[in-house]
Amino acid sequence: MMHLPKEWRFLRSGWIYAYVLAGQESAASGMVSKALQEVAKRNDLVSSRRRRRLFFAMLFREGQKIPPQSLDAESKNLPLARLHRLQEPGRSALALLHLRLFDPDQIAVIIGKTEKELPAILTAAREEFSKIETAMP
Amino acid sequence: MKPDTARRILACHVDDPKGDAPHVMQNALKVLAKSPDLQADYEKQSLIDSRLRAAFKDAEVPDEALNRFATEVAAIPTRHFNPRDPAIISVIIGFVLLVFVLTWDFLGRPASFPPDGLEIAEAILNAENSAFQQVSVPVEELEDWFVLKGFDGFRTPGFLRGGKVDSAGVLEFEKQPLAVVGLPDLKAQLAVFNAAQWNIVMPEGEWRTAPIDSEYAVALSREKEMCFLVVFQGKEAGVRALVKGGPR
Q1: How many C-beta atoms lie closer than 10 Å to residue B152's C-beta?
Q2: Between chains, do A12 and B66 touch, taking CB under 8 Å as contact?
Q3: Partners of A126 in the beta sheet?
Q4: What is the reported pTM?
Q5: CA of B228: how far to CAs of B4, B190, B204, in Å?
Q6: What is d(CA A16, CA B69) in angstroms, rounded to the nearest whole number?
Q7: What ipTM, to 2 d.p.?
Q8: What pLDDT, in 10s, does the model give residues B158-201?
Q9: B174: helix, coil or strand?
Q10: How far apart are CA A117 and CA A113, in angstroms?
Q11: N or C of chain A: less Cβ packing under 10 Å?
Q12: How far apart are CA A116 and CA A98, in angstroms?
Protein backbone atom coordinates (compact mmCIF):
# COMPACT_ATOMS: atom_id res chain seq x y z
CA MET A 1 0.00 0.00 0.00
CA MET A 2 1.30 3.44 -0.89
CA HIS A 3 1.74 5.92 1.90
CA LEU A 4 0.55 9.49 1.92
CA PRO A 5 3.19 12.19 2.51
CA LYS A 6 2.98 13.85 5.92
CA GLU A 7 1.38 17.06 4.65
CA TRP A 8 -1.35 15.07 2.92
CA ARG A 9 -2.16 12.60 5.69
CA PHE A 10 -5.33 14.55 6.41
CA LEU A 11 -6.78 12.94 3.26
CA ARG A 12 -7.64 9.92 5.39
CA SER A 13 -9.76 12.12 7.67
CA GLY A 14 -11.00 13.83 4.53
CA TRP A 15 -12.33 10.52 3.21
CA ILE A 16 -14.13 9.82 6.53
CA TYR A 17 -15.72 13.27 6.41
CA ALA A 18 -16.64 12.79 2.75
CA TYR A 19 -18.21 9.44 3.64
CA VAL A 20 -20.34 11.15 6.30
CA LEU A 21 -21.45 13.66 3.67
CA ALA A 22 -21.99 11.24 0.79
CA GLY A 23 -23.16 8.14 2.63
CA GLN A 24 -21.45 5.94 -0.02
CA GLU A 25 -17.81 4.87 -0.16
CA SER A 26 -17.33 5.34 -3.89
CA ALA A 27 -18.89 8.78 -3.79
CA ALA A 28 -16.65 9.70 -0.84
CA SER A 29 -13.52 8.72 -2.79
CA GLY A 30 -14.71 10.77 -5.78
CA MET A 31 -15.33 13.83 -3.62
CA VAL A 32 -11.87 13.61 -2.05
CA SER A 33 -10.18 13.23 -5.44
CA LYS A 34 -12.06 16.23 -6.84
CA ALA A 35 -11.23 18.43 -3.86
CA LEU A 36 -7.62 17.25 -3.98
CA GLN A 37 -7.30 18.26 -7.64
CA GLU A 38 -8.79 21.68 -6.94
CA VAL A 39 -6.53 22.35 -3.96
CA ALA A 40 -3.45 21.16 -5.89
CA LYS A 41 -4.18 23.74 -8.62
CA ARG A 42 -4.07 26.62 -6.16
CA ASN A 43 -0.73 28.41 -6.06
CA ASP A 44 -1.75 30.80 -3.31
CA LEU A 45 -2.03 28.18 -0.57
CA VAL A 46 1.35 28.49 1.05
CA SER A 47 0.57 27.07 4.48
CA SER A 48 -0.59 23.48 4.87
CA ARG A 49 -3.16 24.57 7.50
CA ARG A 50 -4.84 26.86 4.99
CA ARG A 51 -4.77 24.19 2.33
CA ARG A 52 -6.36 21.69 4.72
CA ARG A 53 -9.08 24.14 5.74
CA LEU A 54 -9.89 24.93 2.11
CA PHE A 55 -9.97 21.22 1.29
CA PHE A 56 -12.58 20.55 3.98
CA ALA A 57 -14.55 23.66 3.00
CA MET A 58 -14.68 22.28 -0.56
CA LEU A 59 -15.93 18.94 0.73
CA PHE A 60 -18.58 20.74 2.78
CA ARG A 61 -19.69 22.67 -0.32
CA GLU A 62 -19.88 19.47 -2.39
CA GLY A 63 -21.73 17.69 0.39
CA GLN A 64 -24.58 20.22 0.17
CA LYS A 65 -25.35 18.98 -3.35
CA ILE A 66 -25.74 15.31 -2.39
CA PRO A 67 -29.22 14.07 -1.42
CA PRO A 68 -29.50 11.64 1.56
CA GLN A 69 -28.53 8.12 0.51
CA SER A 70 -29.94 4.82 1.71
CA LEU A 71 -27.50 3.15 4.07
CA ASP A 72 -25.48 0.19 2.96
CA ALA A 73 -26.19 -2.35 5.69
CA GLU A 74 -23.04 -4.29 4.84
CA SER A 75 -20.74 -1.30 5.12
CA LYS A 76 -17.96 -1.58 7.69
CA ASN A 77 -18.60 2.06 8.52
CA LEU A 78 -22.26 1.70 9.42
CA PRO A 79 -21.94 3.63 12.72
CA LEU A 80 -20.50 6.55 10.75
CA ALA A 81 -23.21 6.26 8.14
CA ARG A 82 -25.78 7.20 10.78
CA LEU A 83 -24.18 10.64 10.85
CA HIS A 84 -25.02 10.96 7.17
CA ARG A 85 -28.70 11.19 8.15
CA LEU A 86 -28.16 14.40 10.15
CA GLN A 87 -29.14 17.81 8.88
CA GLU A 88 -26.50 20.32 7.86
CA PRO A 89 -24.69 22.25 9.22
CA GLY A 90 -24.92 20.14 12.39
CA ARG A 91 -23.73 17.03 10.55
CA SER A 92 -20.53 18.69 9.35
CA ALA A 93 -19.94 20.52 12.63
CA LEU A 94 -20.18 17.29 14.63
CA ALA A 95 -18.05 15.29 12.18
CA LEU A 96 -15.33 17.95 12.01
CA LEU A 97 -15.32 18.29 15.81
CA HIS A 98 -14.72 14.55 16.19
CA LEU A 99 -12.05 14.47 13.49
CA ARG A 100 -10.06 16.85 15.74
CA LEU A 101 -8.36 18.59 12.86
CA PHE A 102 -9.71 22.05 13.56
CA ASP A 103 -10.48 24.32 16.50
CA PRO A 104 -14.12 25.36 16.93
CA ASP A 105 -13.53 28.77 15.33
CA GLN A 106 -12.13 27.09 12.21
CA ILE A 107 -15.04 24.64 12.10
CA ALA A 108 -17.40 27.61 12.17
CA VAL A 109 -15.54 29.13 9.20
CA ILE A 110 -15.74 25.88 7.21
CA ILE A 111 -19.49 25.50 7.70
CA GLY A 112 -20.10 29.20 7.09
CA LYS A 113 -21.43 30.02 10.54
CA THR A 114 -20.19 32.19 13.39
CA GLU A 115 -18.35 30.80 16.37
CA LYS A 116 -21.23 32.04 18.55
CA GLU A 117 -23.73 29.90 16.63
CA LEU A 118 -21.62 26.75 16.81
CA PRO A 119 -22.55 25.52 20.36
CA ALA A 120 -26.29 25.50 19.56
CA ILE A 121 -25.63 23.77 16.21
CA LEU A 122 -23.58 21.05 17.92
CA THR A 123 -26.12 20.55 20.71
CA ALA A 124 -28.93 20.16 18.18
CA ALA A 125 -26.82 17.78 16.07
CA ARG A 126 -26.05 15.56 19.08
CA GLU A 127 -29.75 15.35 19.96
CA GLU A 128 -30.60 14.48 16.36
CA PHE A 129 -27.89 11.81 16.27
CA SER A 130 -29.22 10.32 19.50
CA LYS A 131 -32.73 10.06 17.97
CA ILE A 132 -31.37 8.47 14.78
CA GLU A 133 -29.41 5.93 16.82
CA THR A 134 -32.56 5.00 18.71
CA ALA A 135 -34.52 4.65 15.48
CA MET A 136 -31.72 2.69 13.72
CA PRO A 137 -30.01 0.51 16.29
CA MET B 1 -17.49 32.13 34.36
CA LYS B 2 -21.29 32.12 33.87
CA PRO B 3 -23.12 28.78 33.41
CA ASP B 4 -24.27 29.81 29.92
CA THR B 5 -20.69 30.49 28.89
CA ALA B 6 -19.60 27.18 30.38
CA ARG B 7 -22.41 25.41 28.47
CA ARG B 8 -21.25 26.93 25.17
CA ILE B 9 -17.63 25.93 25.82
CA LEU B 10 -18.60 22.40 26.82
CA ALA B 11 -20.77 22.00 23.71
CA CYS B 12 -17.73 22.67 21.50
CA HIS B 13 -15.55 20.22 23.35
CA VAL B 14 -14.94 16.52 22.87
CA ASP B 15 -13.30 14.59 25.69
CA ASP B 16 -9.87 13.37 24.79
CA PRO B 17 -8.88 10.46 27.04
CA LYS B 18 -5.22 10.94 26.07
CA GLY B 19 -5.04 14.73 26.22
CA ASP B 20 -5.31 17.42 28.87
CA ALA B 21 -8.30 19.73 28.85
CA PRO B 22 -7.38 23.29 27.82
CA HIS B 23 -7.44 26.01 30.49
CA VAL B 24 -10.76 27.46 29.38
CA MET B 25 -12.26 23.97 29.48
CA GLN B 26 -10.97 23.43 33.01
CA ASN B 27 -12.75 26.62 34.10
CA ALA B 28 -15.95 25.38 32.43
CA LEU B 29 -15.63 22.06 34.27
CA LYS B 30 -15.37 23.96 37.59
CA VAL B 31 -18.67 25.69 36.79
CA LEU B 32 -20.09 22.32 35.76
CA ALA B 33 -19.34 20.88 39.20
CA LYS B 34 -21.56 23.53 40.81
CA SER B 35 -24.50 23.20 38.40
CA PRO B 36 -26.54 19.94 38.48
CA ASP B 37 -28.49 20.89 35.31
CA LEU B 38 -25.33 21.53 33.39
CA GLN B 39 -23.82 18.36 34.76
CA ALA B 40 -26.78 16.27 33.55
CA ASP B 41 -26.62 17.83 30.08
CA TYR B 42 -22.88 17.28 29.84
CA GLU B 43 -23.17 13.63 30.89
CA LYS B 44 -25.72 13.14 28.13
CA GLN B 45 -23.40 14.87 25.65
CA SER B 46 -20.46 12.74 26.80
CA LEU B 47 -22.42 9.54 26.19
CA ILE B 48 -23.28 10.57 22.64
CA ASP B 49 -19.71 11.73 22.05
CA SER B 50 -18.28 8.45 23.30
CA ARG B 51 -20.36 6.55 20.71
CA LEU B 52 -19.33 9.01 18.01
CA ARG B 53 -15.71 8.75 19.07
CA ALA B 54 -15.88 4.98 18.71
CA ALA B 55 -17.46 5.35 15.26
CA PHE B 56 -14.68 7.64 14.07
CA LYS B 57 -11.99 5.52 15.69
CA ASP B 58 -13.27 2.35 14.03
CA ALA B 59 -13.78 3.99 10.65
CA GLU B 60 -12.06 2.06 7.90
CA VAL B 61 -10.80 3.87 4.86
CA PRO B 62 -10.60 1.44 1.93
CA ASP B 63 -7.03 0.67 0.87
CA GLU B 64 -7.89 1.30 -2.77
CA ALA B 65 -9.03 4.81 -1.86
CA LEU B 66 -5.81 5.55 0.05
CA ASN B 67 -3.73 4.16 -2.83
CA ARG B 68 -5.65 6.32 -5.26
CA PHE B 69 -5.04 9.44 -3.13
CA ALA B 70 -1.35 8.60 -2.74
CA THR B 71 -1.03 8.25 -6.53
CA GLU B 72 -2.84 11.53 -7.09
CA VAL B 73 -0.66 13.33 -4.54
CA ALA B 74 2.47 11.92 -6.17
CA ALA B 75 1.25 13.23 -9.52
CA ILE B 76 0.94 16.81 -8.22
CA PRO B 77 3.71 18.71 -10.02
CA THR B 78 6.36 20.29 -7.86
CA ARG B 79 6.12 24.02 -7.93
CA HIS B 80 8.66 25.58 -10.25
CA PHE B 81 9.54 29.20 -10.77
CA ASN B 82 6.93 30.52 -13.16
CA PRO B 83 7.47 34.15 -14.24
CA ARG B 84 3.83 34.35 -15.36
CA ASP B 85 2.57 33.58 -11.88
CA PRO B 86 0.79 36.76 -10.63
CA ALA B 87 2.51 36.41 -7.26
CA ILE B 88 5.94 36.25 -8.92
CA ILE B 89 5.07 39.22 -11.17
CA SER B 90 4.03 41.24 -8.11
CA VAL B 91 7.27 40.42 -6.33
CA ILE B 92 9.34 41.36 -9.40
CA ILE B 93 7.49 44.68 -9.82
CA GLY B 94 7.91 45.41 -6.12
CA PHE B 95 11.62 44.62 -6.27
CA VAL B 96 12.19 46.80 -9.34
CA LEU B 97 10.32 49.70 -7.68
CA LEU B 98 12.39 49.28 -4.53
CA VAL B 99 15.63 49.35 -6.51
CA PHE B 100 14.40 52.42 -8.44
CA VAL B 101 13.47 54.32 -5.26
CA LEU B 102 16.74 53.43 -3.52
CA THR B 103 18.75 54.44 -6.59
CA TRP B 104 16.83 57.69 -6.90
CA ASP B 105 17.48 58.45 -3.25
CA PHE B 106 21.12 57.37 -3.43
CA LEU B 107 21.89 59.41 -6.53
CA GLY B 108 19.73 62.38 -5.59
CA ARG B 109 20.91 62.96 -2.05
CA PRO B 110 24.60 63.65 -2.75
CA ALA B 111 23.76 66.00 -5.63
CA SER B 112 21.49 68.17 -3.52
CA PHE B 113 22.60 71.51 -2.15
CA PRO B 114 23.54 71.25 1.56
CA PRO B 115 20.74 72.92 3.61
CA ASP B 116 23.30 74.53 5.92
CA GLY B 117 24.76 76.37 2.90
CA LEU B 118 21.38 77.90 2.12
CA GLU B 119 20.96 79.06 5.73
CA ILE B 120 24.39 80.72 5.66
CA ALA B 121 23.58 82.43 2.35
CA GLU B 122 20.34 83.82 3.80
CA ALA B 123 22.22 85.04 6.88
CA ILE B 124 24.67 86.92 4.62
CA LEU B 125 21.83 88.54 2.65
CA ASN B 126 20.15 89.63 5.90
CA ALA B 127 23.35 91.00 7.45
CA GLU B 128 23.44 94.68 8.43
CA ASN B 129 25.64 96.95 6.25
CA SER B 130 27.41 98.06 9.44
CA ALA B 131 28.98 94.59 9.68
CA PHE B 132 31.15 95.40 6.64
CA GLN B 133 34.03 97.80 6.19
CA GLN B 134 35.16 99.42 2.99
CA VAL B 135 38.37 97.92 1.64
CA SER B 136 40.29 98.55 -1.54
CA VAL B 137 42.72 95.66 -1.86
CA PRO B 138 42.64 92.72 -4.30
CA VAL B 139 40.75 89.75 -2.94
CA GLU B 140 43.82 87.52 -2.71
CA GLU B 141 45.47 90.00 -0.36
CA LEU B 142 42.67 89.89 2.18
CA GLU B 143 44.07 86.96 4.18
CA ASP B 144 46.16 89.19 6.43
CA TRP B 145 43.26 91.59 6.77
CA PHE B 146 41.04 88.78 8.07
CA VAL B 147 43.81 87.47 10.38
CA LEU B 148 43.88 90.89 12.00
CA LYS B 149 40.11 90.63 12.40
CA GLY B 150 40.51 87.24 14.10
CA PHE B 151 39.62 84.94 11.19
CA ASP B 152 42.23 82.39 10.14
CA GLY B 153 42.30 80.44 6.93
CA PHE B 154 40.77 82.91 4.46
CA ARG B 155 41.45 81.77 0.92
CA THR B 156 40.17 82.76 -2.48
CA PRO B 157 38.85 80.43 -5.17
CA GLY B 158 40.86 80.60 -8.36
CA PHE B 159 38.18 82.16 -10.53
CA LEU B 160 37.98 85.22 -8.23
CA ARG B 161 41.67 86.07 -8.25
CA GLY B 162 42.31 89.58 -9.46
CA GLY B 163 38.73 90.58 -8.78
CA LYS B 164 37.88 93.91 -7.19
CA VAL B 165 36.66 93.98 -3.59
CA ASP B 166 34.70 96.88 -2.13
CA SER B 167 33.83 95.62 1.36
CA ALA B 168 34.74 92.94 3.84
CA GLY B 169 33.74 91.82 7.30
CA VAL B 170 33.51 88.95 9.72
CA LEU B 171 29.91 87.94 10.42
CA GLU B 172 28.80 85.61 13.13
CA PHE B 173 26.09 83.08 12.36
CA GLU B 174 25.09 80.52 14.93
CA LYS B 175 28.22 81.46 16.88
CA GLN B 176 30.48 80.55 13.93
CA PRO B 177 32.59 83.18 12.09
CA LEU B 178 32.06 83.83 8.40
CA ALA B 179 34.58 85.88 6.39
CA VAL B 180 32.55 87.80 3.80
CA VAL B 181 33.75 90.06 0.99
CA GLY B 182 31.76 92.11 -1.52
CA LEU B 183 32.59 91.65 -5.21
CA PRO B 184 30.85 94.58 -6.97
CA ASP B 185 32.01 93.70 -10.49
CA LEU B 186 30.48 90.26 -10.17
CA LYS B 187 27.35 91.39 -8.30
CA ALA B 188 28.30 88.80 -5.73
CA GLN B 189 29.52 88.21 -2.19
CA LEU B 190 32.04 85.57 -1.23
CA ALA B 191 31.91 83.90 2.17
CA VAL B 192 34.66 81.69 3.52
CA PHE B 193 34.09 79.57 6.62
CA ASN B 194 35.23 76.42 8.35
CA ALA B 195 33.31 73.38 7.06
CA ALA B 196 33.82 71.34 10.22
CA GLN B 197 31.23 73.37 12.12
CA TRP B 198 28.50 72.70 9.57
CA ASN B 199 26.83 69.67 8.10
CA ILE B 200 28.27 70.16 4.64
CA VAL B 201 29.16 66.87 3.04
CA MET B 202 30.30 67.11 -0.57
CA PRO B 203 33.29 66.11 -2.67
CA GLU B 204 36.23 68.47 -2.55
CA GLY B 205 36.52 70.90 -5.47
CA GLU B 206 32.94 70.36 -6.70
CA TRP B 207 30.60 73.33 -6.99
CA ARG B 208 26.94 73.02 -6.16
CA THR B 209 24.42 75.71 -6.98
CA ALA B 210 20.87 76.53 -5.91
CA PRO B 211 18.43 79.44 -6.20
CA ILE B 212 17.73 81.34 -2.97
CA ASP B 213 14.78 83.40 -4.24
CA SER B 214 13.82 85.17 -7.46
CA GLU B 215 16.72 87.63 -7.09
CA TYR B 216 19.59 85.61 -5.70
CA ALA B 217 21.35 82.31 -6.27
CA VAL B 218 24.13 80.61 -4.38
CA ALA B 219 27.12 78.41 -5.14
CA LEU B 220 29.05 76.33 -2.64
CA SER B 221 32.34 74.48 -2.78
CA ARG B 222 34.72 72.88 -0.33
CA GLU B 223 38.48 72.90 -0.28
CA LYS B 224 40.01 70.86 2.54
CA GLU B 225 38.49 72.17 5.77
CA MET B 226 37.28 75.49 4.32
CA CYS B 227 34.11 76.22 2.36
CA PHE B 228 33.56 78.88 -0.32
CA LEU B 229 30.07 80.23 -0.67
CA VAL B 230 29.17 82.72 -3.41
CA VAL B 231 25.91 84.65 -3.07
CA PHE B 232 25.11 85.95 -6.55
CA GLN B 233 22.56 88.55 -7.59
CA GLY B 234 20.91 86.78 -10.48
CA LYS B 235 19.67 83.39 -11.58
CA GLU B 236 21.18 80.02 -10.76
CA ALA B 237 22.53 79.74 -14.31
CA GLY B 238 24.47 82.96 -13.71
CA VAL B 239 26.19 81.72 -10.58
CA ARG B 240 26.91 78.41 -12.30
CA ALA B 241 28.64 80.28 -15.13
CA LEU B 242 30.51 82.41 -12.60
CA VAL B 243 32.01 79.50 -10.65
CA LYS B 244 32.98 77.80 -13.89
CA GLY B 245 34.94 80.94 -14.81
CA GLY B 246 32.57 81.90 -17.60
CA PRO B 247 31.57 85.36 -18.81
CA ARG B 248 31.33 87.88 -15.98
Answers
A1: 11
A2: yes
A3: none
A4: 0.58
A5: 82, 7, 11
A6: 13
A7: 0.86
A8: 877 777 888 999 998 888 899 999 988 888 999 999 988 888 88
A9: coil
A10: 7
A11: C
A12: 19
